[in-house]
Design goal:
- The chain is of the alpha/beta class and about 425 residues long.
- It contains 16 helices and 12 strands.
- The protein has a 4-stranded parallel beta sheet. Strands 1-4 form a two-stranded antiparallel ribbon.
- Strand 5, helix 7 and strand 6 form a beta-alpha-beta unit.
Length: about 425
């Protein structure tokens, strides 16, 4: 249902029309020149980055077994990845598509500019400020992107945990891919990858991504809240602007930045609460690793715990009667979610577990099996938010008590006045 417009919206439209005419020459020059004053040119290479491999996180390297994991090898369209004993290498044939980072459960493949947290922030920033946000690839756009268009080397570079966290927080995210783009792409595994990742995320979030195939149907309008934030800030600080030359147009951007900052702080609190609850280290003093994707997913579940019933995956379960305490499972778990203590007992912290199944594969005795897990185990209470909510509830209760007390006093005054009126009559 469309939001009802009011007089403020009419003023915003008038201001926007006048500003667009007034600033048209400078905005046109700004769109043609970069920050160095040079002419902007669309270059697909600007949106691609060769990943680096961390062999310490690789499941095959940790186990020295070929049957433990082959996800990156299977998804690489040009077979640029080689895993030999304790080393992972990427050749110069790499297409920089990012699919290896998407499918690697332990995040052994990383890039400086396209980590899950960075991609989340870019998409969330656009989705917060604009009516619609579009995620696309270089082949689909073929031009300099607008501010609400997020260009990646491949749409398949977004893993399911990241899609889930975005779908849980925003309902205006779309994929822009015209018909025929993927059919002729040399990243031959990209279409299957993004189809699987998106389908799983949509099932988990009980929501759907939009799909746009025609560039003419794309919109680049700011959201109503963003426009109103800008306008109100400009009206309130008009006098200040004359003195300090502050720009009210930044008000909306500051609101979006604060939203992203609050999200980051919430994720940091989540990790601290998790570490306090289960410990940051194993019994052998190995530091547990919470992947960025899992942290984003848990942040979304913390914000919307009701979605946990839709999240379906399996986690390892230990049978002590079959275990010989050989230590193979602990050796292969590079996130250190699985702990084998000195007494031969195995414990698994599901928030740190990436559900890869490597421990089950290397367990020769069958003491570990994958079974469906309850995703509500990933919901970490936000004590700060709970405290804020408690204080608000207390303040509301006090306010209602004051109102009730005031009503009773008014009733007594009214009774006295009525009695005086009866006596006078």
């Amino acid at each position: 249902m469309a939001e009802k417009r009011d007089f403020l919206d009419e003023l915003i439209d008038l201001q926007s029309d006048w500003r667009s005419i007034k600033e048209m020459p400078s905005s046109m020059m700004g769109s043609l020149l970069d920050e160095n004053g040079e002419q902007k040119v669309f270059n697909p290479a600007d949106y691609k980055e060769k990943p680096s491999a961390n062999s310490l996180r690789c499941l095959r390297c940790a186990s020295e077994r070929d049957d433990v994991c082959s996800r990156c090898l299977d998804v690489c369209p040009v077979h640029a990845i080689t895993i030999h004993k304790k080393s992972v290498s990427i050749t110069e044939d790499c297409r920089k598509c990012g699919l290896c980072a998407t499918v690697c459960p332990t995040e052994a493949f990383t890039t400086r500019r396209h980590s899950p947290r960075q991609v989340y922030d870019r998409i969330a920033r656009a989705a917060s400020a604009y009516e619609q946000c579009y995620v696309t690839c270089t082949r689909a756009l073929k031009r300099l992107p607008k501010d609400n268009e997020i260009v990646l080397a491949c749409v398949g570079a977004v893993p399911r945990d990241l899609w889930f966290s975005l779908l849980a927080d925003y309902d205006n995210i779309n994929v822009y891919l015209p018909v025929g783009i993927c059919d002729r792409c040399r990243t031959t595994t990209g279409e299957e990858t993004y189809a699987n990742e998106i389908a799983t995320a949509e099932e988990w979030a009980d929501a759907g991504l939009g799909l746009e195939v025609d560039q003419k149907d794309m919109t680049h309008e700011f959201t109503r809240a963003y426009k109103r934030s800008q306008f109100v800030s400009g009206a309130i600080h008009s006098a200040e602007r004359l003195v300090t030359r502050t720009n009210p147009a930044l008000a909306g951007a500051k609101a979006v930045a604060k939203k992203l900052s609050d999200h980051a702080q919430r994720l940091n609190r989540l990790q601290k609460e998790l570490e306090n609850a289960v410990g940051a280290k194993t019994s052998n003093s190995r530091m547990r690793m919470l992947t960025q994707g899992r942290k984003l997913m848990m942040g979304a579940l913390q914000h919307a715990p009701e979605l946990a019933r839709f999240v379906k995956f399996e986690a390892p379960v230990w049978d002590g009667a079959l275990c010989t305490a050989c230590g193979a499972c602990a050796k292969v778990c590079t996130t250190h979610a699985l702990d084998l203590d000195r007494n031969g007992n195995v414990t698994i912290q599901n928030p740190y577990c990436v559900n890869c199944g490597a421990c089950v594969t290397v367990c020769e005795e069958g003491a570990l099996v994958m079974e469906p897990m309850d995703a509500s185990e990933l919901v970490v209470p936000d004590k700060v938010a709970e405290e804020v909510a408690r204080k608000k509830a207390e303040a509301k209760e006090r306010a209602s008590q004051y109102v009730e007390k005031g009503k009773k006093q008014l009733d007594r005054v009214a009774g006295v006045l009525e009695k005086l009126d009866d006596d006078n009559s």
